Amino acid sequence: MDPDLNRYILLNEGKGLVPGYPQSMVNILGKSNIAAVYGSSHKHIRGSLLSLVGPPAIRDLLLPNIDKYMRFFLLNWDGKTIDIQTKTVEMAFFAFFKQILEDESSTIYESFKAEFHKILVGAFTLPINIPGTSYYQGMQGRRSIERLLMQIMEERRASGSQNDMLDRILRDEENNHNLIDEEIIDQIITILYSSFETVSTTSMMAIKYLHDNPRALQELREEHLAIRRRKKEEEPIIWDDYKKSMSFTRAVIFETSRLACVVCGMMRKIASDMDLNGFVFPKGWKVYLFTRETNFNPFLYPEPFTFNPWRWLQNKSLESHKYCLFFGGGSRLCPGKELGIVQISVFLHYFLTKYRWEEVGEHEILKFPRVEAPRGIYKMLAVSDRRPIAELWWPAAELQWPSDVSPAADGWRGCGRTSFMELVLKVHVSVDSPPPYALFYKQTIGLFLINQWFKERKKQEVVGPFRSKQMI
Ligand code: HEM
User: Fold this and answer.
1) Which of 11, 71, 141, 465 would give a disulfide with 115, using CB separation of 3.0 to 4.6 Å?
2) 21 alpha carbon to ligand 1 midpoint, in Å?
3) How many structural domains are present in the chain?
4) Model pLDDT for residues 68-90, shown as the tens digit of each residue
5) Taking the model in full, what pTM does it have?
6) CATH code of the domain covering residue 329
7) Residue 367: which domain range?
């Protein structure tokens, strides 16, 4: 949790602090996925990815598409009670799928979605490859997506070009990255995996915080209405709108990422015995850089539990502060950072300028180990606002939300109080099969983990402090 040490680890991959994501994730996302490779392979793949999702690509190719699909996606919510969690999940998947495989049929879209869901569930599990486990299903999902992509790539090669991301990887005209098929498949799965949950969760939480903070909602809405007033209804959002007229939107997105802790940390592996802050970390050990603590550092963020987007405007250097690690750091700084922010901004733009909404029923949002509304009950009644744009604003009185849903009340849930064992059991023992399998696996895996834990403790007592100055 030490912010300086976290930063040191992120900046020193070259000294043997390499990515250390779980085996299940490496197997399911693929051995050449960007988060599993390092050194020259990492540089090579990262170069290819940046040319696909970096700011020039967003400005010229991706933003017009995001605009088109976001308008389409937000049609017809009027008068309906929607589950905002389900909707933001669909929004993120739909928009990224369309960037990658624009003209593929709805049948391909539906199969992709179903198989991708298995990948999501399986990526952080114990790699036990027997029917019924989430890992097994994740591997099945990966294989199906592999088959689908191979087939699409063959068709594309035979029939000439389209202009989506897959096609640009296949052509790779300007950049000469020339990825082989296996690398292409791994990168596509990784782009979807890395973008989808971060973008959907940040969008959902932004809506929640805006709910709870009418003043922020009103200011954000005014920012977007001002953009709309300059445009005809059918005119899309362009790069200049995003760069020059959405500063409060960016602040809302950063404040949401901070308070909701959409990414809690990053994982690294020690390539050879290493002394870090006076502790010897033996080769092969995994290090979890727990960065979410820093999000609540009162010196960096006064009144850290308050949703205060204005702090990002008052202190412009906060975004590049060395402890601000929402998007990682060093050579693995998120290559999709700008794309993610653009997508959430365009989503908010159309959501705020099209609809008013209110909460329906009770809701519960968990923050740890991942941010989610576990029963999907965070529902909203969206009402299309048909008044002329000039009149569109909400009197603050309309927007008094219950005080018991303040960010301070739920912002800290579980954090720091979840024991390691509890966490391991929660994260890994998510077996999706019906009883009696589920119970059997849960018990077996639970016993296995407890046994491992006792063994580990015993080892520490016998081996002592790992030849170090202090015991880890
Ligand atoms: C709000 C949105 C996002 C957040 C908070 C976020 C966060 C992060 C973080 C913290 C890392 C560092 C991981 C590490 O060091 O191990 C990362 C890496 C990465 N992100 Fe994002 N991300 C977001 C959106 C996206 C999008 C839209 C894409 C899609 C293009 C993307 C693709 C990636 C990839 C490929 C990596 C691995 C980079 C590497 O290993 O060099 N992310 N992201």
Assistant:
1) 141
2) 13
3) 1
4) 999 999 988 888 888 888 899 99
5) 0.83
6) 1.10.630.10
7) 3-416
